[in-house]
Amino acid sequence: MGKPTVRATVIIAAALAMLQGATAQDQPRPGMSCPVDHDQLADILKKSVKPSGGPSNGGLDNNEWAAVVNRQGVVCAVAYSGSKVDDQWLGSRAIAAEKANTANAFSLKNKAMATANLYAGAQPGGFLFGAALSNPPSPEVIYAGTPEEFGTAKDPMVGKPVGGVIAFGGGLALYDGNGIAGALGVSGDSSCADHNVAWRVRHFLGLDHVPAGVSPNMKDAIIYDIGPDGKSPSGFGHPKCNGKEDQIAVDLGAGVSGNVVR
């Protein structure tokens, strides 16, 4: 057999590079620390979206996506509550990851900030107006791979930073006994229902040792204090949605209704 042609050599080299890249993608990033793995997140998400024998979360009663990032903003896990990938809004996969990125980016070791707490400040005239455009998400990360991998342990977002800033409910920082460990994002229903689901998931994960936040006593709870004039007395308010999400949030300890004195 003769020597391979230059073209054949290039093809072989490219194939080997692709194989090595695929193998690397399937492996966790060396030294990457994560508070939650895929199987744990998927199991608890399913139990939290439609609690067995318990109250709903309000909203449309949809299936949901969830994503977790570590403290460095790298995606650790992506999961969905339905039986297949399109049982929940496909667009909410990216939103869940961006919510997790946001809660992690705006929370500190000694003070948590839920994405719901950012709503009022991100409106025109608010002290965070423009924040939603400050850290654009990475389309090349979000749309990599194939839909068959989305929401599985091999989701293409895992091991990569996604970016994005979302200023409505569904994102919560995660706190273990040592401080902040990353954040969780939930999306697929009304933003108010997303917050309720995220609150349940975080609690069942045992990562709700929140030290403090902008909401007194409730820490990073959603604050429903936006009045008819559109203003939030606390400065960290979130609008009510169309269902009973606000009542459910109060019952869960995940929300505060009415004026909040800080």
UniProtKB/TrEMBL annotation:
The keyword Signal applies. It comes from the Bacteria. Residues 1-24 form the signal peptide. The keyword Signal applies. Keywords: Signal. Pfam families: HbpS-like (PF03928). InterPro entries: PduO/GlcC-like, PduO/GlcC-like_sf. This is Haem-degrading. It comes from Bradyrhizobium shewense.
